[in-house]
Amino acid sequence: MSKAGRILAVGCSLVMLTAMVSYGDVIGGTVSTSPRSGIPVVASTESSYASVAISHVSNYVNVRTEPNTTSSIVGKIYNNCAAKILSTVDGEGGKWYQIQSGTVNGYIKAEYFITGAEAKKIAKKVGTVYITVNTDSLRLREEPNTTSRTLTLLSRDAEYIALKEENEFVEIQVDADLAGYVHKDYVQQRVEFEQAVSLEEEKQKQEEAERLKKEADEAIAAMERLRKEAEQAQTVSATETLGAEESTESIGIIAANPNETRARDTEAAFSGGESSAARGTENPAPAENGIAVGNQDGPGGQSTSVSNETGAEAGPGAGEGSLVTSGAQEGPGSEKLTSATRTAMVAYAKQFLGNPYVYGGTSLTEGADCSGFTMRIYEHFGIDTGRSSRDQAAKGREIPIESAQPGDLLFYASGDYINHVAMYVGGGQIIHASTKKTGITMCTAYYRTPYKAVTFLDS
Predict the structure, then answer these.
(1) CA–CA distance, 321 with 170 (Å, rounded to integer)
(2) Number of structural domains, the chain?
(3) Are 41 and 31 in contact (CB under 8 A)?
(4) CB atoms closer than 10 angstroms to residue 303
(5) What is the CA radius of gyration of the chain?
(6) Residues 64 and 4 in one domain
(7) CA torsion, points 264, 265, 269, 271, in degrees to nearest 10?
(8) Which residue, 287, 322, 355, sits at the end of a domain?
(9) What's the maximum distance between 2 C-alpha atoms anywhere in the chain?
């Protein structure tokens, strides 16, 4: 199921409740856009929950144009979604709230919401605190101090889930395999809650899911056409080569037995036949080997910045720009086929954005961990990567990190121990099964420092 499909099933988009917050502070206020999702959200820096409500339902309830169950439905709000209360009115069966949640404005029975102190109490459980790095290279510390070990370096604008605050530090979840501390001076924090979706937004999400599936189907079909063409070309080449070898064999017989051959040729001439010597040989051009170049998009790196808490280096490369592939590399298939395979793999993987992260899982729809996700993507294209991230790092052909192309794998490590894998998709971005909270998602390839890159596509 695609991200759009999953959001449709969950039925909530996101509501951003604070820009700069500490745990326990929240909001309700003006409409803005979530930098994470691009969805209209409620944002302000108020610390009161007086006008904030959190839905408490078994599945979902309809948002209606009037405070009764016979009026038109304008949207749906699912469990643990947030809304701003605009007014309280008497309606069918008792008290109703007029709410604004995302783009949805309408009425819901008050009994379906938690408000005030009770809402504040559960906010940490149902909301998510995100931090965004605002310096070029930030140290992730093992402990909440400036002297503990640096676990990795984080890049500017990368986004992470905040777990808790300790003094001047915030503990963050980088991915399912790495957590640590960053200094609060180098990050911005915000809280997001899920919110209602309109009927039109549900339709748009379904259309987005269908678009991603169509793109994947078309990319795979294009790859298969090129594969068939390559196989046909190899068959023709093999036939021509076999003919050339047979002719060469005849020439060898002539050279070994010249008298016998001349006699046979004389006999053939009187009988109207043609000897192999008379036919001669024809050497076809050898079949070309495929060149796996693909496009020249690589994960890049970023500029470095040195201070006590900003890292000494952001890693190899420079910026999220494209990378130059040095020279042609021999591999199976043609350059076009390899490039088409890369495109198809990325398109196929994007169908599963938003689907859940499950430790030990290998299902693209029901849940996968990082290596389970990459294993299944490659498996769909007939490539065996192995199960764990370490298996995959050992089995693929190592390439420079800055030379990675769409479809290649990037690995991340704690020290020298590889514990996470992602697939590069181009433009400095990766797709990976990240955390239980975010599921399968896309982000910068330098959300933590890459340790190794391998390819399975041109080796």
Answers:
(1) 30
(2) 3
(3) yes
(4) 12
(5) 31
(6) yes
(7) 20
(8) 287
(9) 116
Check whether residue 247 and residue 372 sit in a common domain: no
Strand order in the sheet with 439-444: 397-399, 450-455, 409-414, 417-426, 429-435, 439-444
Map tokens 């990766």 to a residue. Answer: 430
Q: How far apart are the C-alpha atoms of 201 and 8, rounded to whole Å?
A: 9
Q: Residue 122 and residue 82: Cα distance in Å, rounded? A: 12
Do 403 and 256 share a structural domain? no
Q: Would 137 be classed as within a structural domain? A: no
Alpha-carbon gap, residue 346 to 355, rounded angstroms: 16
Residue at 171 is within a domain? no
Each of the 459 residues of the chain gets a pLDDT tens digit; together they read: 443 333 333 334 444 343 333 333 333 333 333 444 333 333 333 345 667 789 998 889 999 999 999 999 999 999 888 888 999 999 999 999 999 988 899 999 999 999 888 887 777 677 788 999 999 999 999 999 999 999 999 999 999 999 999 999 999 999 999 999 999 999 998 878 777 777 887 788 888 889 999 999 999 999 999 888 888 877 777 676 666 665 555 545 444 454 544 444 434 433 344 333 333 333 333 333 332 333 334 554 443 333 456 554 433 333 333 322 333 333 444 788 999 999 999 999 999 999 999 999 999 999 999 999 999 999 999 999 999 999 999 999 999 999 999 999 999 999 999 999 999 999 999 999 999 989 999 999 999 999 999 999 974
CA atoms of 41 and 101, how far apart (whole Å): 8
Q: Three-state SS for 33? A: strand
307 and 269 together in one domain: no
Note whether residue 157 is domain-resident: no
Q: What are phi and psi of 7, to 5 degrees?
A: -65, -35
Q: Among 56, 43, 44, which residue's Cα sits nearest to residue 14? A: 43
Residues 232 and 320 reside in one and the same domain: no
In this prediction, residue 242 carries a pLDDT of 67
Q: Is 136 helix (H, G, I), strand (E, B) or coil?
A: coil
- Which residues does residue 77 pair with via DSSP β-bridges, in sequence order? 61
Range of the domain at 329: 291-455
388-399 as b/e: b if 16+ CB within 10 A: bbbbbbeebeeb
3-state secondary structure 234-283: HHHHHHHHHHHHHHHHHHHHHHHCHHHHHHHHHHHHHCCCCCHHHHCCCC
Tokens (6 digits) for 71: 């009026």
Of the residues 109, 126, 143, the one at which a domain ends: 126
**Tokens 């986004």 appear where?**
159
pTM, two decimals, is 0.65
